[in-house]
Amino acid sequence: MNADLERLIALQRLDTAADSAGRRLADEPEREKALRARLEAVRTRVATSKEQLATNQNARRALEKDVALHQGRLSKFRDQLMAVKTNVEYQAVQKEMAFAQGGVKTIEDKVLERMLEADELAAVVKRAEAELAAEQKAVDADRRSMTAEHGELQTLLERIEGERAEIVAALNKQVLAVFESVARKRNGIAVAEARNGICTICHVRLRPQVFNTVRRNDAITQCDSCNRILYFVPTPAAAATPDDVDQPAP
Length: 250
Ligand SMILES: [Zn+2]
Description:
Layout: H1 3-26, H2 28-83, H3 87-170, H4 173-185, E1 191-195, E2 198-199, H5 208-216, E3 221-222, E4 229-232
Parallel strand pairs: 1-4
Antiparallel strand pairs: 1-2, 3-4
Bound molecules: zinc ion (ZN).
Zinc ion (ZN) binds next to loops.
């Protein structure tokens, strides 16, 4: 294979790898944002469930005050009952007492409802808190792996930079200029494989004489349509047979 063509293929691989590493690094703020959002969503659920429990407790306290109020009235009626002089008065006070007792009963039923509801709400709070703890753990793990990946990507980019510089130094300057010009216009992809007479990136059929040239891999040939520099991967003549595998002695 033409040495410069071989260098261009390697250069393209490096540039493509650097591009995807760069994108992954550029994605980090977005990924961090997503992690925060995940935590925030569970935190909100915890806060909401706690608020509901607090509302329930406040309502219960208010009801219990009402019960005390009614019971105060009841004991006043009992005192009055001792002091009544007539049957009519007696009946009137008793009627008031029955009414107050009914009130106490209604409110006590409501207190009971609130207590049952409080048990459910407390369980919801507990579940949400457990979920938050688990999510915090998962997010911490994701952050750690993001940090580790960040280091690996930086190392990779440095390695690519070094390898790229070596290839660029060895490349014919005109060939490099063609590569860079096509890369600029074609989203960073300046080299394409030609297969079955077709440029595999723009999918345009090559003229037969162009494809024949490309098949030889001995010159810098560009696709007529997308201008990418073409190369050909010969299909292996025969499938490898495991002949060379050591056989156990008979
Ligand atoms: Zn093409």
